[in-house]
Amino acid sequence: VRHMKYSIPSPMSVLDALVLFFPESSRRTLQQWIKNGRILVENEVIIKATHRLETGQHLSIGKKEVPLPSF
Predict the structure, then answer these.
(1) Of these four, 5, 14, 48, 60, which has the most CB atoms within 10 Å of its CB?
(2) What are phi and psi of 18, to 5 degrees?
(3) Residue 67, Cβ density class (10 Å: 0-12 exposed, 13-18 middle, ≥19 buried)
């Protein structure tokens, strides 16, 4: 699975990086991405919005999980 990678330009939190790269998305939506385990930094899942990123690290977004229909 290929993920789009985003290079962190300066030290910041995961949430601040997402706001930078996805300005059209609400902070609430971006926080849901984090909470749902979709955010990877250097291929490790990050679930804290306040996780600190350093310059040059790479952030990627995992695929949205599609819930299975319940019968």
Answers:
(1) 14
(2) -65, -40
(3) exposed
Structure tokens at 10: 């300066």
- Coil, helix or strand for 21? helix
Q: What's the rounded mean pLDDT across residues 60-66?
A: 81
Q: Does the pTM exceed 0.70?
A: yes
Helix axes 27-35, 14-21, angle to 10 degrees: 130
pLDDT tens string 1-52: 456 899 999 999 999 999 999 999 999 999 999 999 999 999 999 999 999 9
> What residue type is 55 in one-letter code?
T
**52: which strand partners?**
13
